[in-house]
Specification:
By secondary structure, the chain is mostly beta strands. The chain has one domain: Sandwich (Immunoglobulin-like), CATH 2.60.40. The protein contains no helices and 8 strands. Strands 3, 4, 5, 7 and 8 form a 5-stranded antiparallel beta sheet that branches. A 3-stranded antiparallel beta sheet has the order 1-2-6, with no helix packed on it. A hairpin with a 4-residue loop joins strand 7 and strand 8. The radius of gyration is 16 Å and the shape is elongated.
């Protein structure tokens, strides 16, 4: 069933929070979750798979996003920013959000992989 929730992601390198000599590369990511359907949906939980440039994976699961479990009305969006720190100059993230409708239906929305990369680290 198409639940009509879209997720758009923008990522950016944060040099002011990074220390490449110590293997610390900080990235911010900005998420826009839009409800394009006809019913409200509440974001209950998140699941991320964070992969560094050495193919090491870290899984992160938790309730909501940045301490919130937003209820997104039809035609509305929820926007937030968060971050990740990697030991390499490049990596990626992918995952899913779990939502619940007012009638109790629970569904997952996949978050396609997006890159985390220091500018010019990828050709």
């Amino acid at each position: 069933m198409d639940e009509k929730i879209s997720v758009m992601v923008q990522s950016e390198f944060r040099p002011e929070h990074s220390d490449p000599a110590q293997g610390r590369y900080a990235f911010a990511y900005h998420i826009n979750i839009a409800n394009r359907g006809g019913e409200p949906a509440q974001l209950i939980s998140r699941h991320w798979v964070i992969t560094d440039g050495n193919e090491r994976e870290e899984e992160v699961r938790g309730l909501g996003v940045v301490g919130e479990q937003p209820r997104i009305m039809p035609g509305a969006a929820h926007v937030y920013s968060s971050g990740a720190v990697l030991p390499t100059a490049v990596g990626s993230m992918s995952g899913s959000y779990q939502f619940v409708r007012d009638d109790g239906r629970v569904f997952q929305v996949p978050i396609p992989a997006f890159s985390l990369a220091v500018p010019h680290a990828l050709n």
